[in-house]
Amino acid sequence: MTKNLLTPEGRPLRTIKSFAKRTGRITRIQLDGIKNHWGEFGLGFQPDILNFEEIYGNNHPVVLEIGFGMGTSLLQMAEENPDLNYLGIEVHTPGVGNILDKAHLLGLKNLKIMEYDAIEVLKDSIADQALQGLQIFFPDPWHKTRHHKRRLIQVEFMALATSKISLGGFVHVATDWEHYATQILEVLTTCKSIQNQYDTYAPRPDSRPLTKFEQRGYRLNHDVWDFYFKKI
Fold first, then answer.
1. I want to staple 124 with a disulfide (CB 3.0 to 4.6 A). Which of 10, 44, 47, 192 is the partner?
2. pTM of the model
3. CATH numbers and ranges of domains, the chain
């Protein structure tokens, strides 16, 4: 269990979050997705190690996606790869509702969802070397300089995250923000337990679906940077 850090005065230390909890407008379908299908796909946070074989009913490798947005690409990956189990973490409630609704319609058996702080989940709920892969697609770039400390991809975070990945497992990150891309490459390269599978940036693997957001970006000549590393 994660211990609460205290200031010298004995008050709880305020930790920097890599996300802002924004519920936003939620549709009736999304609300119904949460109400009707959370029991089927949702996992509540508990500060105990998750038993993936018990949760999924098999011993297939588990891939964790942090920040799946509305879940479009994660749904497609889960549907196309029934021999892999997927765990998606997101704090955007409409996105959670959307993926729950769509996962039910698709009849997926290899997808589970958590609505919680991913760092706490990694610290408290996932055993070392329990994951086959980690994917983070288009994390919030926090583009203002004073907010860069909120970016998810930091040295400390990657040290934690890579400890949860098994030997030979992967880390796949993508961003459409050039300054963040430079930071991500530097951070991932600094992490000695993973190795870049390309000289610098990776071509978009076929395994990462092209989202509508990304397709629009390409039409507007926006670049996207992929990073693909493996645990060594």
1. 47
2. 0.88
3. 28-231 (3.40.50.150)
